[in-house]
Amino acid sequence: MIYDNFDNPKTVDNPDNLAVDIYQFLPRSDHGSIIITTRSAQVRQGIRIHVQKFPDVKEGLEIVSNISGRKGIEKDPDAIALVKELDGLPLALSTAGAYLEHVTTSCSDYLRIYKTSWLKLQTKSPLLDSYIDRRLYTTWQITFDRIQQQNPASARLLKLWAYFHREDLWFDLLRHANSVDDEWIQKLTKDELDFNEAITLLCTFGLVDADRSSQKQVGAKGYSVHSCVHSWIVFVLNKEWDKSLARLALNCVASKLSKKEKHWWLLQQRLLQHATRQAFFIVDTKVDVDRLYWFFHKLGNLYRDQGKLVEAEKMYLRALEGKEKALGKDHISTLGTVNNLGLLYSNQGKLAEAEKMYLRALGGREKALGPDHISTLGTVNNLGNLYKDQGKLAEAEAMFLRALEGCEKALGPDHTSILNTINDLGNLYRGQGKLAEAEAMFLRALEGKEKAFGPDHISILVTVNNLGNLYKDQGKLVETEKMYLRALEGNEKAFGPDHISTLGTVNNLGSLYKDQDKLAEAEKMYLRALGGREKALGPDHISTLNTVKNLGSLYKDQDKLAEAEKMYLRALGGREKALGPDHISTLDTINNLGLLYSNQGKLIEAEKMYLRALEGYEKALGPDHISTLDTINNLGLLYSNQGKLIEAEKMYLRALEGYENALGLALASSYLPALNTMFAFGDLFSQTDRKHMAKAMYNRALSGYTTVQGPSSKRSRQVEDQLQALQVASAESNAIPEAIKKEMPYD
């Protein structure tokens, strides 16, 4: 025997006069079974079996297919999208199938109507034979009426849910409300017991589910409603848009968008879906937006921190428009948005627009707050990073030193605000080839951040990644890998696998694996970074182009020269457009094209590329910078291939002495470009019959390659082959009579 829809049981806690005592209807029998269906958790008779939604899309497709009579929909992407939207709810799936049985509407059109005209669609849907007395929405309406009778605060909370995402609503998120209009929510969240009472009633009637997962998160566990229930809340309970509830939801989310929390980035991830939901009805002008510039600014910060740069720009521009209108163009709050727009444009690779924003913010802040105010110095530091990206290293250093000196004076030398500037100075010194100074800055920043924030803070990951870059420059590849893997693990944990910070470390790991001759692993990393960056930043962003250039270098090493040229030319065109022909990143690509043309035997084109790169490097970085020396070494290789051995020797000697002076003898012996110079020098000495000098260079190169890449690497094997050939040649030379030797020509 089955008792269906026993949703209003008579209990001590249920004051409803219409509540039913089911015991008086149960048969007096000692055999058979009784099934009671209910949405109420107050029904406690017998053994409780919780009927879950269908977890598998396949089962949902079968229901829609069987009821609608439409076959083959299991491979229809629109049908799959529809079933996912209905999220395994049998009644919703059956209702959709019944509607689709009688019309020619496609699954795509049904889903569109479902999202825009939910209530009208439900009223027009045929009644189900197995559920002839109720529709989907009337079932929940009956439940809602009972909830409202028992606890009006529970009913009001359910209505408020329309203005949040359906998932992960938690107690502390609602603890905001500072206006008289929100008195009910203040009362509801004043005590967690009151909130628990209200939410428990919603759970009891099956409209809300508690998160019972074991996953750790910031703050208390949340509550969720089914997607179909949420649609009913939006289109039925909130048929008339409630602007006071919408503003309350905005206030709740905005009040939590602060970086004062220890793990603020994890809290941001919980808030992101709610903020995105609210951005929808802001754009749809369903709330008064004139006074919401503060929310737009905070939403822009959230999107930028989470790597959603397009959405961030829209929010910042709306915030700027609102602030300029309400507060004026020179108000310090307006200037804060201007400064953050500069940060965003810098992240997008729009360096000219970023500079314009920074200079406006700096001028305004100096005038309003003074040249030594912390906010002013923050913009000064941002300008330093911009100038570094533009290759204006002297101007960048001046900005960083001004920011550092000002912050130390205002806050003290150990304040955490100074640590980011110290880290940025480390990046600058690394770009200038001052590796010892860079290491000192990075280690100081890392020590300070670990002391202040603990080992897992995201600010630390930036410095850890930068230390990895430095160690790679120094040829300390084991230490490099440790840093990169630590940064990657931390970024994936904090932001997820597709965040731009994560992708930056993935790209760097690709470069490391390439240096270690692990070309398959390198390609895997580069392709992951490229796909992610193209999606997040666009195909022409400077970070995307950096990975494109790196892929070109990898393809060159794999002898895929056509693919390499395609990558290099794409990177060169993009960098010349974004950064200019004389930017360091542009020069790097020109140097790489020279390497490629040399491998292709296009020696004249290669020489043009090298000389252009060399001239640019010497002008921008000086004659002794690592990048300058790398190009000098490449010119040496080219001259050697052209048979210009005297010119080649001059280039090799200048490059090797430069590496040793810049890095020291120990580090130069593990720095790959320096090892390549030693290898090439060995070849040159061998060609010119200076076998003892050749042997010394080969042995030095072999020792370095073995340490850095391992004894079985391609380079290590090549040097061993040359040493063996040199030994054979020496043995043969010793067997030649002295008189004949004197007649042999010298090249």
Layout of SSEs?
Elements: E1 2-3, E2 35-36, H1 57-68, H2 77-86, H3 90-102, H4 107-116, H5 118-124, H6 136-150, H7 152-160, H8 171-174, H9 183-189, H10 192-204, E3 209-210, E4 223-224, H11 227-237, H12 243-256, H13 264-283, H14 293-305, H15 309-326, H16 332-347, H17 351-369, H18 374-389, H19 393-411, H20 416-431, H21 435-453, H22 458-473, H23 477-495, H24 500-515, H25 519-537, H26 542-557, H27 561-579, H28 584-599, H29 603-620, H30 626-641, H31 645-663, H32 665-668, H33 672-687, H34 691-709, H35 714-735, H36 738-743
Parallel strand pairs: 1-2
Antiparallel strand pairs: 3-4
Helix pairs in contact: 1-2, 1-3, 2-4, 6-7, 7-10, 12-13, 13-14, 14-15, 15-16, 16-17, 16-18, 17-18, 18-19, 18-20, 19-20, 20-21, 20-22, 21-22, 22-23, 22-24, 23-24, 24-25, 24-26, 25-26, 26-27, 26-28, 27-28, 28-29, 28-30, 29-30, 30-31, 30-33, 31-33, 33-34, 34-35
Task: Explain briefly what this protein structure is.
The chain has helices spanning 57-68, 77-86, 90-102, 107-116, 118-124, 136-150, 152-160, 171-174, 183-189, 192-204, 227-237, 243-256, 264-283, 293-305, 309-326, 332-347, 351-369, 374-389, 393-411, 416-431, 435-453, 458-473, 477-495, 500-515, 519-537, 542-557, 561-579, 584-599, 603-620, 626-641, 645-663, 665-668, 672-687, 691-709, 714-735, 738-743; strands at 2-3, 35-36, 209-210, 223-224.
